Amino acid sequence: MSFTTRPIVVVVGNGMVGHRFCARLKSTGLFRIVLFGEEPRPAYDRVHLSEYFSGKTAADLSLPMTGWFEDEEIVLHLGDPIREIDREHQVVHSLKGHTQPYDYLVLATGSSPFVPDIPGVEKEGVFVYRTIEDLEKIKAYAPRATNGAVMGGGLLGLEAAKALLDLGIPQTHVIEFATRLMPRQIDSAGSHTLESSLRRLGLQLHLNKSTLAIEGKNRIEGLQFADDTRLAVDMLVISAGIRPRDELARLAGLQVGTRGGIMVNERLQTSDKRIFAIGECALVGGMVYGLVAPGYDMADIVVTNLTGGNKTFVGFDMSTKLKLIGQDVASFGDPFASEPDCRSIVYEDRHKGIYKRINVSADGKYLLGGVLVGDAAAYNILLQTVNNRLVLPPDPEDLILGSRGGGSEGAGVTSLPDEALICSCESVTKAAICTAVTEQGATTIDAMKKCTRAGTGCGGCVPLVKDLITATMKANGQYVRNVVCEHFDHSRQELFDLVKLHDVRTYGEALSKWGKGDGCEVCKPVMASIFASLWNETIVKQATIQDSNDRYLANIQKGGSYSVVPRIPGGEITPDKLIVLGKVAKKYNLYTKITGGQRIDLFGAHVGDLPDIWEELIAAGFESGHAYGKALRTVKSCVGSTWCRFGLHDSVSFAIEIEERYRGIRAPHKLKGGVSGCIRECAEAQGKDFGIIATEKGWNLYVCGNGGSKPQHAQLLATDIDKETCIKYLDRFLMFYIRTADPLTRTATWLNKMEGGMTYLKNVVVNDSLGMGEVWEEEMQGLVDSYSCEWKDVVENPELRKRFVHFVNAPRKKDPELQFDPLRNQVKAQEWSK
Amino acid sequence: MSTRTSPEIDLQWRLACRIEDVPAEGGACVLLDGQQIAIFYFARRNEWYATQNRCPHRGQMALSRGMTGSSGESCEPKVACPFHKKTFSLVTGECLSGDDYQIQTYPVRVKGDKVYIGISA
Questions:
Q1: How close A515 comes to chain B (CA, Å)?
Q2: Model confidence pLDDT, tens digit, residues A327-343
Q3: Which of residues 86-115 of B touch A (CB under 8 A)?
Q4: Which residues are CB-contacts of B111 (< 8 A; sequence separation ≥ 6)?
Q5: What is the pLDDT of residues B21-40, one digit of tens each?
Q6: What is the pTM of this model?
Q7: How far is residue A113's CA from residue A121's CA, in Å, rounded to a whole number?
Q8: Number of residue pairs across A and B with CB atoms under 8 Å?
Q9: Given CB atoms, is B76 within the 8 Å cutoff of chain A?
Q10: What is the fold, at CATH topology level, of the domain defined by A3-112+244-306?
């Protein structure tokens, strides 16, 4: 079909569902698509809107439209809502005056926030929570607010409350009309668990409150409730539900529901057969669906029907799993089923804030539904168990408690029927995934995404998809083992031993001996780390197998500039060295910031300036801080007994000694340490991979802690030991970790996976149960003795310096795309571009 | 949509750099008519590839600094962007890590110690 004779589909509304529809319809190549959106920006991810406040930008949230407009298959009008539909002539008229004929019209106008009719809603400081523009207004107003409130304790209300917390509003309140939170999704015991967890996080909840008026002159000052109480607030976000945007349909004479919503049949056609409605504006089977997944389903159905298929919308499973203010909340199947139709199994842990309920059919055979609060790890498999009517094991409580002693956990993925829907965003069944493994060899998540698109939407099914891949491979007799990547059939530990045994020194040699293909971004840095840990040759020798940061010996930052972090052992620095850092930063226009590891980070260096910057730093006595490497970062210290009136020993000197001992040593992941001079623990040593705390009699050694997204306290390895013993144990501990951990595994995760856990580790390190102690100490000493500063090696070598250019054919020219914006008398990287 | 394999006749062969400018099993960036082009040298296979330097994911001029490698039984040459590890085929320009991106690729010729890139006239 030639392009100009293709039928025209006009889409009204550029939200998530409208976007999905266009993406799907475009891929058929059968239509010309014209898209009108009211908002000034292309479609974005509204589900993750609250992340806008925790650091994501509008560009991060934007949905990909790569290549959409190149081939003119889609014409996009932004900031131009449709004002009128002329059904008789099959044209639409836009605000900006476009008149656009259509063969088919798809309304994806979405919804607007419901604002209850309370006196005072027009006051300054009252907001709704729906679009990026709403969020920008909230963000602009927040700095002057000390008491923020959200009206509505449902799903969106709690999202909005999270946003206020993220904005740093000192007091955040949630006002709910019902007697508990999220009454539509979870049962009352679940609400109570959620409520206590949220209160612990600093949220103030006001339940069973009906708001009568919003007080204040021009600006909101407080809320007046029906029970004669009031609450002083200076900011209010209303999140009391949604109303379908049906005004355009209403104006065009299409049938709408009495309580709103564009009426459609099960093929999602409105009362005019050429006009469809999808997403939150549609009223189908008497329901408006306020979630994105059913909206996507509707979009796909209309695409199918427009291209000659015949699919109907028969309702949607409203099971859902969310993270609200860091709390898992999930409900699936029938969460409220009650006796006599079912028997419920309930687990409640008030200490940890966990509540789980499953409803089992009266005959004990089937799972009907349930609620999970605080821990929703079992959600996927429970949902599958309901949807596929899997027969329950004899002890169904194992489904929420885990198996206690013997046997495997639950029924598992193998018991799912072939038609089980694994990825609901992309409608991918178990059979499709298993077939992709067996017939197309899709044995990694990336390959599976390409093959089936499973896991490309919300990503929630990825763990289940991984389990299915492994299970299918096992069932096919394929050898499932812990391998680094497709190029090496070995684990990191095996490669480590092979490299050592065969004295292999280069990546090319290793690839010829044990690998295939040309390697990749996974196995190259793994081998680089192994070579560095074993031979400690300077990493610049094999620059192209290093991760980008190791290749340029600096951390790549937004925009493509690099940051420079000289080592400041133990956080101790002389005034003269501080002055040098200041001078260098000024000369090269670098943004400076104190890091969490007691160092000074200099951001915004052009790649071509790096050798000059380091030349000046090295001349002043600095050396590389290895902030770019999977290596020792810092050993943080408190000031200790040299100044502190509480200090028992000299923690700074010990920290410097340790940091200089292990500097530059490559490991499976970064390493951080800490030394505290007394039990007050000001160096936060128990949050590090190794932490040393002074005692009356010596030092306590803790290992395997970390901060980051899953903080974990370090555990006590040895008590009241002297410095020499401490270093001996550290040598053994670190070498054991370097030899055996999987790539990119921090010590905490390594320990969590270790059979026997801390008891075993203690035995190996302290009691030398493997008899490796002496070997490891010698190996470590070898690494310590062969240390050299990588940056010194580069600065002194003109050939190596040449590598630090952006354009090899114009070495003096800097990347013109690299731009900075001003920020508090310094610079910052420009935002990501689209 | 423009296609990648234009007939040779439309190509203008431009001198990009010398072979020693591009590290073995790695990449380097050249500037040609204001355009940033990434050149990759697969020394073991003695093959050369060139693509746009810009990673379409976040618009960063970074592909030349990415790690090279190959994918699958056919050993399709690829590069991984150093920013978020999106990988791209150096043959088709297609994104191999599951996203809907496409990058421009260019033919490369080596004569003596000089590397030329074919740009459509």
A1: 12
A2: 889 999 888 888 777 88
A3: 87, 96-102
A4: none
A5: 999 999 999 999 889 999 99
A6: 0.55
A7: 13
A8: 125
A9: no
A10: FAD/NAD(P)-binding domain (3.50.50)
